[in-house]
From TrEMBL:
Residues 18-31 have a biased composition (Basic and acidic residues). Residues 119-356 form the Dynamin-type G domain. Residues 507-592 form the EH domain. PANTHER family: AT21416P, EH DOMAIN. InterPro entries: DUF5600, Dynamin, Dynamin_N, EF-hand-dom_pair, EF_hand_dom, EH_dom, EHD_N, G_DYNAMIN_dom. This is P-loop containing nucleoside triphosphate hydrolase protein. It comes from the Eukaryota. The keyword DNA-binding does not apply.
C-alpha cells in the first residue's frame, strides 16, 4: 500500500474498504505506490518506503482456475533500482576476476567470460520438460497473450530454444543475430555452432511481465525412439549453459507422462550445482481425480528420487495451466490446485526483487571456481618436466587426476566442494599441452582474493535489510470480524480534553525506550513483534485491533517510532476514558 496524502491521512476509517486493513482480500490497485530509494544513496530524514509497499509482479491471487481469465494473475512491474550495484559489480568482475579466467583458460573448461549484458540481464526462467507438458501454454498463461513464433500442439511443436523478452514491438530476432548483439545476454551461444543458432530465436513483444523477466522456452525433450534422433548440437551442454544463467528452473511433467527418458535424465544431470533454482511442476493435475492424483504424485516423487541425487526433497507444484479448460477436467482438487499455483506465482514474483543479490551470488560462485581452476592449472604446469618425458608425464597426471586434486586441496587449503567434476575436467585436459599452461601468479590470485574477501561482501552490505512483504491478513496482528469496530460507540463523548488529540501531547520519552527494545528494522516493527507488549496492557483484542488500525496511518502493517508512540497514546486514552474515548478516525492533529 502506498502512503496516503496529507488530506487523506486524517480521514481514514477503520471500516473503510481498500485502506490496507486485514479484512480485505485484495490490494487496492487505485493507490500509487512509491518507488524504493536507489541502493548506495544516503538516507533522507523521512523513513524510506518499505519493500512491502513496492509494486510486485504478481500481486493478486488467482481465485479460480476454471477458465483462462479466472486463473490468470495481474502483473505490475517491479521498480527496484540497483543500477549502481550492477555497475560496480561489472567493474569488479572486469578488473579482478576476468583476468584470472583468461590467464588460466577458464573458458576452455567451464564457460566463456561474462559480458556486460550477462551481468545486467533481467532474471531468467528456464522451462524444461518433455513435449506436450504445457511449457508454451504456461508462458502464454503468464503473459496473457501469444508471442511471435509460439505454437501449441500434442506433437513436439516447439523445435527450438525461444527466449521470450520484452520489446517495443512484436518481432523475432534469429539466433545468429541474437548471438552477436551486445544488448542481449546470449553472446556466449555461438560456441554451440550454426546447428544450434538456427534452432534459437528471441521473440520480443510488449508486455509488463517481461519488463522484469526473460522466459526461456525449450524444445520438448524426446522419449522412446524419438530421443535417438540427432539434434545436430549438444542439447545437454546447451541446457547447462542456460542453467548457469537462470534464476529459476522449472521442470514440467504431465500427470499422464511421468517417465523420464534418457535425454531428460541427462538434462537433469546438467542442472547439478543449481539445485536451489529447480522447481517441479506437475501440470494438468485436474486431468485425474483426487485419488489418482495422490498416486501420480507419489510416482513422480519416486521417479525424481532415482534421478536427482540430493538428500533434500524437490519442491513440486500441483498445477493446471490451460488456455481453454477441457470439459472433462476434475474439480475435486480445485482449491488445492489454486493454492499451489499461488505459491508458484509467488516464486516468480520474488525473482526481480532478489535479482541483484542473485547476480552477486553467481559472481561469487564463479570467482571461487576460477580460483580453484587456477590452482589446478598452475599445479599441473609445475608437475611437468623441463625437457624430456612431457607426453608420458601428462598422461600420468590425467589418469591420476583425483590424486592431483587432493594435492591441490592440501597445498592451498581449498574446500573439496569447490573442485569441478573429475571426469569432465579430465576430458577437457586432453585438448591441451600442460607445458603451455600458465604458472601460479600470486598478483592475479591476490586481486581475485581481494574481490572475494572485500569487494563482493562490501556490495552485499549495500543491500538494505528490508522488512518482509506482508499479506493483507498479516497487517493487523489483532484480527477480528469486520463488524467488530461497528460495536464501538465512537461518537460518544468522553472527558478527555481536546488538547490530548494533538501530536505535541504524545510522550515519546516513555514510548521510545520501549520501541527500541523491540529491535526495529529500518525504523519499523511488525505486528508479531509488537503484539506481545501491546497484549500486556490488558486491553481486549477488539480494542487493540482498532488502536493498531488508527496508529498505522501508512497502512503498511508496520509501526514506525511515531506510530508506536501514537498507539501508546491511544492506549492511555482508553485506560483513562474507556473504550468510548477512541475516535472513529485519527484526527489530523495527531499526525507528526
Amino acid at each position: 500500500m502506498g502512503y496516503p496524502d496529507e488530506k487523506k491521512r486524517g480521514s481514514q476509517s477503520s471500516s473503510k474498504e481498500g485502506n490496507g486493513h486485514p479484512f480485505h482480500d485484495y490490494y487496492d490497485d487505485s493507490k500509487q505506490l512509491p518507488s524504493p530509494p536507489s541502493v548506495g544513496t544516503s538516507a533522507s530524514a523521512q523513513p524510506p518506503p518499505l519493500p512491502s509497499r513496492q509494486p510486485s509482479i504478481i500481486h493478486r491471487t488467482a481465485t479460480s482456475s476454471t477458465t483462462r481469465n479466472s486463473v490468470r494473475s495481474s502483473y505490475t512491474p517491479a521498480r527496484d533500482d540497483y543500477r549502481e550495484v550492477y555497475r560496480d559489480l561489472t567493474q569488479i568482475y572486469k578488473r579482478k576476476i576476468r583476468p584470472l579466467e583468461t590467464t588460466y583458460n577458464f573458458e576452455g573448461f567451464h564457460s566463456a567470460p561474462l559480458t556486460d549484458s550477462d551481468i545486467l540481464a533481467k532474471p531468467m526462467v528456464l522451462l524444461l520438460g518433455q513435449y506436450s507438458t504445457g511449457k508454451t501454454t504456461f508462458i502464454k498463461h503468464l503473459i496473457e497473450s501469444d508471442y511471435p513464433g509460439s505454437h501449441i500442439g500434442v506433437e513436439p511443436t516447439t523445435d527450438r530454444f525461444v527466449a521470450v523478452m520484452n520489446g517495443s514491438e512484436s518481432r523475432v530476432i534469429p539466433g545468429n543475430a541474437a548471438a552477436v548483439s551486445a544488448d542481449l545476454p546470449f553472446r556466449g551461444l555461438d560456441r554451440f555452432g550454426q546447428a544450434f543458432l538456427t534452432r534459437f530465436q528471441v521473440s520480443q513483444c510488449p508486455n509488463p511481465l517481461l519488463e522484469n523477466l526473460t522466459l526461456i522456452d525449450t524444445p520438448g525433450i524426446l522419449a522412446g525412439d524419438k530421443q535417438r534422433v540427432e539434434r545436430g548440437y549438444d542439447f545437454t551442454k546447451t541446457i547447462e549453459w542456460f542453467a548457469q544463467r537462470s534464476d529459476l528452473i522449472l521442470l514440467f511433467f504431465d500427470s499422464h507422462k511421468l517417465d523420464i527418458s534418457d535425454e531428460f535424465k541427462s538434462s537433469i544431470f546438467a542442472l547439478k550445482g543449481h539445485e536451489e533454482k529447480v522447481r517441479v511442476i506437475l501440470n494438468k493435475s485436474d486431468m485425474v481425480d483426487q485419488q489418482q492424483l495422490m498416486r501420480v504424485y507419489g510416482a513422480l516423487m519416486w521417479s525424481l528420487g532415482k534421478v536427482i541425487q540430493t538428500p533434500e526433497v524437490m519442491r513440486v507444484y500441483l498445477a493446471s495451466f490451460w488456455l481453454h479448460k477441457p470439459s472433462n477436467a476434475f474439480e475435486d482438487c480445485r482449491a488445492l490446485l489454486e493454492k499451489e499455483q499461488a505459491d508458484l506465482l509467488k516464486d516468480l514474483r520474488d525473482l526481480p526483487r532478489n535479482a541483484a543479490i542473485r547476480k552477486v551470488n553467481e559472481i561469487v560462485k564463479r570467482a571461487r571456481l576460477a580460483r580453484v581452476h587456477a590452482y589446478i592449472i598452475g599445479h599441473l604446469r609445475k608437475e611437468m618436466p623441463a625437457v624430456f618425458g612431457k607426453k608420458s608425464r601428462q598422461r600420468e597426471l590425467i589418469s591420476n587426476m583425483q590424486t592431483e586434486f587432493l594435492k591441490v586441496q592440501q597445498l592451498y587449503s581449498v574446500p573439496a566442494g569447490d573442485f569441478p567434476n573429475v571426469t569432465a575436467f579430465r576430458q577437457s585436459l586432453e585438448a591441451y599441452r600442460f607445458e603451455n599452461f600458465a604458472r601460479i601468479s600470486q598478483p592475479i590470485l591476490s586481486v581475485a582474493e581481494e574481490a572475494l574477501s572485500h569487494d563482493l561482501p562490501k556490495i552485499m552490505r549495500r543491500f538494505p535489510q528490508y522488512n518482509p512483504l506482508l499479506e493483507l491478513n498479516q497487517k493487523n496482528p489483532f484480527l477480528g470480524p469486520p463488524e467488530v469496530f461497528n460495536t464501538l460507540n465512537s461518537n460518544s463523548k468522553s472527558d478527555i480534553p481536546p488538547s490530548y488529540w494533538h501530536f505535541s501531547s504524545v510522550d515519546k520519552t516513555v514510548s521510545q525506550p520501549i520501541f527500541l527494545s523491540l529491535n526495529p528494522i529500518e525504523g519499523k516493527i511488525n505486528g508479531s513483534t509488537a503484539k506481545p507488549y501491546l497484549m500486556s496492557t490488558g486491553l481486549s483484542v477488539d480494542l487493540l485491533a482498532k488502536i493498531w488500525t488508527l496508529a498505522d496511518w501508512t497502512c503498511d502493517g508496520y509501526l514506525s517510532e511515531d506510530e508506536f508512540a501514537v498507539a501508546m497514546h491511544l492506549i492511555r486514552a482508553v485506560e483513562s476514558g474507556g473504550e468510548l474515548a477512541l475516535p472513529e478516525t485519527l484526527p489530523q492533529s495527531m499526525l507528526p
